[in-house]
Specification:
This protein is of the alpha/beta class. Helix content is about 55%, strand content about 10%. It has one domain: P-loop containing nucleotide triphosphate hydrolases (Rossmann fold, 3-Layer(aba) Sandwich), CATH 3.40.50.
Amino acid sequence: MTDGYFITLEGPDGSGKSTQARLLAERLRAAGRHARLTREPGGTPLGCVMRAVLLHPEATLEALAQAGLAPGDMQAEPMLPLTEALLLSADRAQHVARLREWLAAGDVVISDRYADATLAYQGYGRGYDLATLRALQAMATGGLAPDLTLLLDLSVEEGQRRKRVGHEDGEEINRLDLEQRDFQERVRAGYLALAAAEPQRWVTLDARASMGALAEQVWAAAALQLGL
Ligand code: TYD
């Protein structure tokens, strides 16, 4: 058991969870709580390296070649589903050590994605066996589960529209954003199934709401659990 409180935000790409995670952390701090904001993949220094490999393998290989750390004539290759699942889990194992320290110190920890993302993307999205992925997550997390998970649900169409607009404003497009629409549909359905299976932990919010209105709903869900 931990003394702090662990909140995760999940949702399909373009659902606005990163903005909502930041707004929630700011509001918790204004309410006098010690809030930590983090993310997966990439919540630790080593995790940033794994994030680059996972989301931008070609650019990573190029940078390594330029630094003399990879042969210059190497081409990026497709990532196997198992490699992807293991890298994400390795990122998570490294992250969990830090999460545990913060929670033991009594902090409210907000993570922009966590283990449920692997079930949604690699399990429901890629079709990787869910029981195997759950066993892998048990290993990576050592059993650390969120106290509250907020699902920012959004249609694939609207998510992709927002991604396009974000990209025009300079937001990065990663390897998974380029997946086909049916993949994104399976991820969304997967998240909804995970939320339905564990209603005591998940709160599903409609991410079509404006940023401000959604922030109010996120705050209401967190404040209720934290007694604020
Ligand atoms: P994120 O930084 O949340 O990207 P975005 O802001 O575009 O939603 O996550 C990066 C990508 O990694 C995202 O497409 C989802 C994917 N991902 C997985 O496939 N499995 C995982 O376990 C995690 C944590 C992320």
